Amino acid sequence: MNKKDIPAALAVFAVAGGLITLSAFAVPHISASKEVAQHVPRTYVSSQQTNPSVMLASSKAPVLNVDSSVPVSTVKQYLEQTMTDEEIQNIYHLIDNITQGNETGNRNMTAEENKRLKVLKEQYTYDGLRPEKPLPLKEGKYEFYLDMEKGSFVYPKRALTNEELLQRIDWSARVNYASLKRVVQPQPDSKDIKDADAIVKAVESVSKLFDVDLSKLDVMTSYNKMGPDQKGIWFVHFQPYKAEVLQENGKTYFMYDVYIDSLSGTVVDTTIFHSTYKRTPITAEAHKKISQDKSWFAAAKSVITEKQGEKRAIAGMSLISDDIYDKRGVVAVSIKLEDGSSYIAELRYPEQTLRCLIYEPAKKAKDKDSL
């Protein structure tokens, strides 16, 4: 899978799943993209809206057995019942006419405000906590409001109250919901595998590569078509419930992203995110030592043969030199198979643990002819 196509998939998923901020760091080899920014202005960082985990009854692959006590968001239902067409049109007008650079407001939120915001956002999403009144959209007898003319928040000099933070969260959720209604999202057709099948394949890939139990994680899916050939891709994301609370409290947690070819059902990318992992950048001196250390090849080979279960013969292995990999403390090993297929195993430095496994099938005859 061409990584240049990934941000476009995340953009649609970000709006659909309510993960504007989350998606950008869920896949560490992706930085914030213009595609995401074009869907929703920076002011309107979305409230997280997750879908209930899917239970798969008949499958030999690992199953997401989620008990009935897991948190379930009611935000979408709440917004469907409370948002009017007039409100949605006003939001569209604001998004279309907002002046770039004015979105942040008259001051930045403090660390203490952001900490409360994250906790309240989780309560808004999962516990049904709502503001007593909506966010004011013009100047008046209140200290916190949204200036609709400029598209920016006006903050008081004092700290925001919990009610004001909830108003901000609620407004962001409404903008996210309205934006989603505008997105023309590609839909899988009869030739594509179903989302439930994509989840089964994603669970299987994550389980064998990282030896983890996904039964207590939330799962979200998104379908998109990418590249000049408009190739269908399923994106499956696993994360803990109330991940932002865990993050705010400095707790260690893991998230997993899987990309799947929607026609063949082939997993083309499986990535892990470790919330508290500290990267070790690779210096020029370390890079030279790595290039002479065959243990990196052994570690990569172990990933695809022992964990991935690859039985096909390996034709060759090489290191990928890239400044971005060096800065992020990743050693990327390219593995070519005799049939023309290939893997890229991204290993963390210096531990040699797997961060991401990318697979590219061999080009078919008609694909070669078109090159």
Provide an overview of this structure.
- The model is unreliable at about 5-70 (pLDDT under 50).
- The protein has helices at about 5-15, 20-25, 35-40, 75-80, 85-95, 110-125, 160-180, 195-210, 245-250, 285-290, 295-305, 325, 365-370; strands at about 145, 150-155, 220-225, 230-240, 255-260, 265-275, 315-320, 330-335, 340-350, 355-360.
- The strands form two sheets. Strands 3-4-5-6-10-9-8-7 form an eight-stranded antiparallel β-sheet, sandwiched between helices. A two-stranded antiparallel sheet has the order 1-2.
- With about 375 residues, it is of the alpha+beta class.
- The protein is built from 13 helices and ten strands.
- Helix content is about 35%, strand content about 20%.
- Helix 1 runs antiparallel to helix 2 and helix 6 (about 110-125) crosses helix 7.
Give a brief rundown of this model:
By secondary structure, the chain is of the alpha+beta class.
**What are the secondary-structure elements, in order, as H or E?**
HHHHHHEEHHEEHEEHHEHEEEH
What's the N-to-C terminus distance?
16 Å
Q: How much is the radius of gyration in Å?
A: 22 Å
**Estimated helix fraction:** 25-40%
Number of strands: 10
Range of strand content: 15-25%
Q: In what order do the strands lie side by side in the largest sheet? A: 3-4-5-6-10-9-8-7
Unreliable residue stretches: 3-68
Structural class: alpha+beta
Instruction: Please outline the major beta sheet.
Output: 8 strands, antiparallel
The average pLDDT is 81
Number of contiguous helices: 13
Principal-axes shape call = globular
Write a concise keyword list for the protein shown above:
single chain, 8-stranded antiparallel β-sheet, two-stranded antiparallel ribbon, 10 strands, 19% strand
